[in-house]
Specification:
The complex is a heterodimer of chains A (196) and B (847). Chain A is of the alpha+beta class and 196 residues long. Chain A has 6 helices and 10 strands, in the order ααββαβββαββαβββα. Chain A is globular, with a radius of gyration of 17 Å. Among the domains of chain B are: 104-203 and 306-349, 3-Layer(bba) Sandwich (FAD/NAD(P)-binding domain); 465-515 and 611-703, Probable tRNA modification gtpase trme, domain 1 (Gyrase A, domain 2, 2-Layer Sandwich), CATH 3.30.1360; 518-606, Aminomethyltransferase beta-barrel domains (Alpha-Beta Plaits, 2-Layer Sandwich); 749-833, Aminomethyltransferase beta-barrel domains (Elongation Factor Tu (Ef-tu), domain 3, Beta Barrel), CATH 2.40.30. In chain B, a hairpin with a 6-residue loop joins strand 3 and strand 4. In chain B, helix 15 (621-628) packs across helix 16 (676-687). Chain B is elongated. Classes of the chains: A alpha+beta (196), B alpha+beta (847). At the A-B interface, helix 1, strand 6 and helix 6 of A face strand 8, strand 13, strand 35 and helix 16 of B.
Chain lengths: 196, 847
């Protein structure tokens, strides 16, 4: 509880502006920060079936091997970032247990596990115009036919690196944004929303 | 008024007031500025760029070479494409646009779109292509530069997205199409990636080239029909048609229906010609025929044939060939995933007798205009050919023909025909000039989109930024970061603030936000070997729980970046980089790992944004740290220099490092960024009884310079070796590293290289400008040899005087000597010293 009082999401100051946007956009688009998610960067050789098996056991699901897809079980997800790189995402306060589990999963094999929970904050963009809003700054095709549930991608939003994920059928995108870029991205989205 | 009583696709019930060159006029909804000006009998829209000749509306589309106007801050607009809007204020553009110094108030937007089929051009061919492409359910975009389609778009299926007022101006690799949309409040730049591009862009009519063919009242024949039938405007009262083809056949009846007398139809195919025109300040008054007959008229409709609009196809490297039958260039062969349809593909049905030139009556060619926008005449082209130009590209550059904002849409093919005629080459052999994007002028504001003001480039902020703002920090840009530069109190100036901040760090305790340092997590069994190769110094002796300063060079042996490398655990390290160098260092490391050293098993992860970092600096910093972390023994033996500890204060997890960049006893406290502000506030609270002072980058620079610590990029510029800096101590002789071999080159071992030195101006009040040159001779009235330069220069509260660092030839041999610094109008003397001014014994860091 102490932690709640002293931790601060990178976009804590934007909550009111996001609410205003939701009201002016006729609820067709909403933006909110999902701070404090546990995020672990995992690097491991995907060809090492023994290690991959152990990581699967520890996580409870297999790491996605198809580029730009995510897999999940329960409240944990894994986003494919590269042939030997994944972002493991879980709820708040699971960073330490996930880090230990993943290290255990490596079983001393070669790889790396890095707690990057505070490296990026997560913005959720939801609503019928969410796709339109992102189209102003994201060069990749986010149409459901090209970027459906379970898809993720590392790309740019305007001039900021982002990871974009679509979790399910709902019209919603999760954007993972480096903390120092978060206010730039938020300002940019609020400005672009005026063109909707 | 020349508005017809009925007809056209305008709304007479919605009058629109506008001004042109300060005069107020009235048009209708659906008008363009051009049609409204014609409806108000405004014949002269602009004056030509070179000769100042009066010019009027010439076309009805984006090919317009004459009627260029300025509307607000937007310049080089074609009146034929400016939709009439209430309150529109337009002005003539006489040749060149005027950039406004007023802030831009229009809104410019960018958007990406993706589709299976993009159809450019909403005429019959484009519309039918869109319709059939949509049947598969694919995403189809149909784009047209007009505000409405010829036929209603209602009948199109829902998977066809129709973009009106949108001009595709560039077709790039892999079918990236850029298009400019005109919007009431500004514009929007479309970046469309299409699997298939269908070009149904139609054709441009071209004029005939005869003497005085540029007068207001002379219009392209097709444009006249557009003004009559679409806008309900009569562009004249008594018309003559001058043609070489039968597309003009319906024109006479259109003119008569509008009440315009048809005075003559002059057809080159019947061996008739107009050889000159007469006019006054208001434009055309009469034409003179071959044979001498003079016909009074105020409207001349000309047609010299049609050119398929193949600019986009040609931009994408599509080849064109000359078609003898229709006297035009048309697509030859195919481009992958690009289809050209209809008139754009040369699919015509008319008869034509090509005519590139109609001689005048007196052998003078200086009023035979080929390019109206650039004011290029047949005489200019003759000069080019007489000067030896044969290639169409050379003639273009010699005459500037086709280089106007209209890109020669109405002049280009006449130019080709004329070069053929003047040089005796077949037209197909002359070929066309290269079509380049943009097809229409595109404003810088549109290209910038919302990348302006605060959104021009990302502004990176640390988690502690709200505190800095609330406490009046003045910021400086460091790369994309905003960093506090200094924290002025009340009406303190910068110098006062920096001196106070420095004194606090030297005498008391001070605090700085150092979150912007680059941070790279390094894991793997070969991490030590990797670090040994990257850095000039060795890391294999560094124990877990300690950090070490490291320096890295590029392969040329020149200093690249520096930072502290922490040994966090077995096979686990963390390297810090300079704030500005973070991304370049990570790229550099990855490049070596991936391309040169695949045998090393090492993984790199950027954690720059994960950590917020607070430097607590000064002789009393230990007290502050002790207050915050009572469980951690902070005496020098228990927590030695460069050691790392883990702690927690008030629920904030913190990693503590004994690191100094000031020479003072100092700690860096790291915490995950969402705790950053809380940690800063906790340190401020703990330090308050001691008068803890926040400081910015300027004081940090002064403090490090007093100790002679370099800043990569300030003392170094890519031409400086560690040895030049007097840092040979950090260059290992026992192990290989990047740049080592270059340190054995003759050039890097030269005795007369520049060395890092200290500089004390003889007048301790004199602040040397950074970048100032160093010379040996006090007399600089004659040329003197520059032997060095000032890299850093400050006023020091601690030293009670100014001081500087510099790079000086044979600098280490010159300690104690005097060099001179030529400034504006006078010369300043400075004593060369060792590059360290304070605490030479390094005792303060452990004090």
């Amino acid at each position: 509880m102490i932690a709640e009082a002293i931790r601060r999401g990178a976009l804590a100051d934007y909550a009111e502006r996001f609410t205003t946007l939701y009201e002016t956009a006729g609820s067709s688009v909403s933006i909110r920060e999902l701070p404090f998610l546990a995020q672990l960067n995992l690097r491991v050789d995907a060809g090492d079936t023994a290690v991959m098996g152990q990581v699967t056991d520890y996580l409870g699901f297999s790491l996605p091997l198809t580029p730009n897809t995510a897999s999940q079980a329960g409240d944990r997800r894994a986003l494919w970032l590269g042939p030997d790189e994944w972002l493991i995402v879980g709820p708040d306060d699971q960073a330490t247990s996930l880090e230990q589990a993943l290290r255990g999963g490596l079983g001393g094999a070669v790889g790396s596990v890095v707690d990057v929970s505070a490296n990026r904050t997560v913005l959720e963009i939801r609503g019928s115009k969410g796709h339109d809003l992102l189209a102003h700054g994201v060069p990749i095709d986010l149409d459901p036919g090209a970027f459906g549930p379970g898809c993720c991608a590392q790309t740019l939003l305007a001039k900021a690196q982002v990871i974009i994920e679509r979790r399910d059928e709902a019209p919603a995108f999760q954007l993972y944004i480096r903390s120092s870029f978060a206010s730039y991205v938020a300002d940019w989205l609020l400005d672009a929303a005026r063109a909707l | 008024m020349s508005r017809l009583p009925e007809g056209g696709r305008i709304d007479r019930s919605r009058p629109i007031r506008f001004t042109f060159n300060g005069h107020t006029y009235q048009g209708c909804a659906g008008d363009t500025l051009a049609s409204a000006l014609l409806a108000n009998d405004v014949r002269i829209v602009a004056r030509s760029v070179t000769y100042g000749r009066p010019r009027g509306v010439f076309s009805a589309g984006s090919e317009e070479p004459n009627a260029l106007v300025q509307v607000g801050s937007e310049t080089m607009l074609r009146a034929t494409q400016v939709e009439l809007d209430d309150g529109l204020e337009a002005a003539s553009l006489n040749g060149k646009g005027r950039l406004t110094s007023e802030p831009e108030t229009a809104r410019f937007d960018k958007i990406y779109a993706h589709c299976e089929v993009l159809v450019v051009g909403g005429g019959p061919a484009g519309r039918s292509a869109a319709q059939s492409a949509a049947q598969t359910g694919d995403r189809v975009i149909l784009m047209d530069e007009q505000p409405l389609l010829n036929s209603d778009s209602d009948g199109l299926p829902s998977n066809v997205r129709v973009l009106l007022r949108t001009t595709a101006f560039g077709l790039y690799d892999q079918n990236l199409v850029l298009a400019a949309e005109r919007r009431a409040d500004g514009g929007r730049l479309w970046q469309i990636r299409a699997r298939q591009v269908v070009l149904a862009t139609g054709a441009h009519e071209r004029p005939l080239v005869f003497a005085n063919n540029d007068r207001p009242g002379i219009l392209l024949a097709g444009a006249v029909r557009t003004y009559l039938n679409r806008y309900g405007v009569a562009p004249g009262t008594r018309g003559v048609v001058f043609t070489n083809n039968d597309t003009t056949a319906p024109l006479a009846s259109d003119l008569r229906s509008a009440g315009i007398a048809v005075a003559a139809i002059i057809d080159i195919r019947r061996e008739q010609a107009i050889v000159d025109t007469d006019g006054d300040d208001d434009g055309l008054r009469a034409v003179t025929l071959a044979g001498g007959d003079r016909i009074e008229c105020d409207l001349l409709c000309v047609s010299g044939g049609f050119n398929p609009t193949d600019h986009l196809y040609s931009q994408a490297q599509g080849k064109l060939r000359y078609d003898e039958r229709f006297a035009c260039f048309r697509p030859d062969g195919k481009l992958p995933n690009v289809t050209v349809l209809g008139a754009a593909n040369g699919e015509f049905d008319f008869a034509i007798q090509p005519c590139w030139l109609v001689p005048g009556t007196n052998g003078d060619w200086s009023a035979h205009f080929v390019d109206l926008e650039r004011d290029v005449t047949v005489a200019d082209m003759q000069r080019a050919v007489n000067a030896g130009m044969r290639s169409i590209e050379h003639v273009k550059r010699f005459t500037t023909i086709g280089t106007g904002s209209d890109q020669g849409k109405t002049s280009g093919i006449n130019e080709v025909g004329l070069v053929g005629a003047l040089t005796g080459q077949p037209i197909g052999g002359v070929g066309t000039t290269t079509y380049r994007p943009p097809y229409v002028p595109v404003s810088f504001a549109l290209m910038a989109g919302r990348n302006r003001g605060d959104l021009f480039d990302p502004i990176r902020l640390t988690s502690i930024q709200p505190w800095h703002v609330a406490h009046g920090a003045v910021f400086e840009n460091v790369g994309q970061w905003k960093r506090p530069w200094y924290f002025p109190r009340h009406d303190e100036d910068m110098e006062g603030a920096v001196q106070r901040e420095c004194r606090a760090a030297r005498e008391n305790v001070a605090i700085m936000d150092v979150s912007t340092l680059g941070k790279i997590d390094i894991q793997g069994p070969d991490a030590v070997e990797f670090l040994n190769r990257i850095y000039t110094n060795a890391f294999d002796t560094l124990k877990v729980g300690f950090g070490r300063y490291g320096l890295m060079c590029k392969a040329d042996g020149m200093v690249f970046d520096d930072g502290v490398v922490m040994h966090l655990g077995p096979d686990h390290w963390l390297a810090t980089t300079t704030t500005g160098g973070a991304a370049a260092v990570l790229d550099w490391m990855e490049e070596w790992l991936q391309t040169e050293w695949p045998e090393l098993t090492v993984r790199l992860t950027s954690v720059t944004d994960h950590w917020s970092a607070v430097a607590v600096v000064g002789p009393q910093s230990r007290d502050v740290v002790h207050t915050l972390f009572p469980a951690i023994a902070v005496d020098t033996q228990s927590f030695p220099f460069m050691a790392i500890r883990e702690g927690e204060t008030g629920g904030i997890p913190v990693r503590l490092h004994r690191i100094t960049f000031s020479g003072e006893l100092a700690y860096e406290l790291w915490t995950p960024s969402w705790y950053g502000l809380a940690l800063w506030e906790a340190v401020m609270a703990a330090g308050q009884p001691l008068g803890i002072t926040p400081y910015g980058t300027e004081a940090m620079h002064v403090l490090r310079a007093e100790k002679g610590y370099i800043i990569c990029g300030q003392e170094t510029d890519g031409t400086v070796t560690p040895q030049d800096l007097g840092m040979g101590w950090i260059v290992s002789k026992k192990k290989p590293f990047i740049g080592q071999r270059s340190h054995r080159r003759g050039d890097t071992r030269r005795a007369d290289r520049k060395h890092l030195v200290g500089l004390l101006p003889v007048d301790g009040e004199q602040l040397l400008p950074e970048g100032a040159q160093l010379v040996l001779d006090e007399n600089t009235s004659a040329a003197v040899t520059m032997i060095g330069h000032v890299t850093s220069s400050y006023r020091s509260a601690t030293l009670g005087r100014t001081f500087a660092l510099g790079m000086l030839q044979r600098g280490r041999e010159r300690f104690g000597t005097t060099v001179y610094v030529p400034l504006n109008g006078h010369v300043v003397a400075a004593t060369v010293t060792e590059p360290i001014f304070y605490d030479r014994e390094n005792v303060r860091r452990d004090s």
